[in-house]
Each structure stands twice: as structure tokens, then as C-alpha cells.
Amino acid sequence: MPDYTSEELSDAHRALLSTLHKCEKIDATKLGKSQQTLLKRRIAALKVALTLIEKEQDQKERGDEKP
Q1: Is residue 13 part of a domain?
Q2: Is 55 helix (H, G, I), strand (E, B) or coil?
């Protein structure tokens, strides 16, 4: 996996968090079945990506080496 700078990770985290908040504001009841499924999967994927970025940021702050 490429080594990203703290600034790159922070920028990516901010952008993904903004997208997640926008997705969570959507009224899924107004969407069709397939769009609801897509929205749920997109939200889940954004949460995974945010968690991984946060984990990477924590490792950088602690100065841990990658496994």
C-alpha cells in the first residue's frame, strides 16, 4: 500500500466524512429499491474507508511501523 502523508490522509478523511454525512441525510424512502441498496452499501463502504484512514493516522501519530 502506498505511503500517504498525514495531510493527504486528513484531506481524504474530510472529503469522505462530508460525503458520508450527505448520504446519511438522504431520505431513502423516496428512492427505489435498488437505489436504497446502493445507498446502504455506499454508506457502509464510506464507514470502512474512514475507519481505515483513522487507523493509519493513529499509526503515524504513534510512529508505528507497518506490519
Answers
A1: yes
A2: helix
In a domain, 45, yes or no: yes
Specify the pLDDT at position 66: 57
Q: How many CA atoms lie within 13 A of 23 on its CB side?
A: 19
Cell of 12: 481524504
Counting the structural domains of the chain, the total is 1
Q: pTM, whole model, 2 decimals?
A: 0.87
42 part of a folded domain: yes
Q: Answer whether 10's CB lies under 8 Å from 53's CB.
A: no
Which H or E run contains 34?
helix 33-62
Q: For 8-27, what is the mean pLDDT?
A: 98
Residue 37 domain-assigned (yes or no): yes
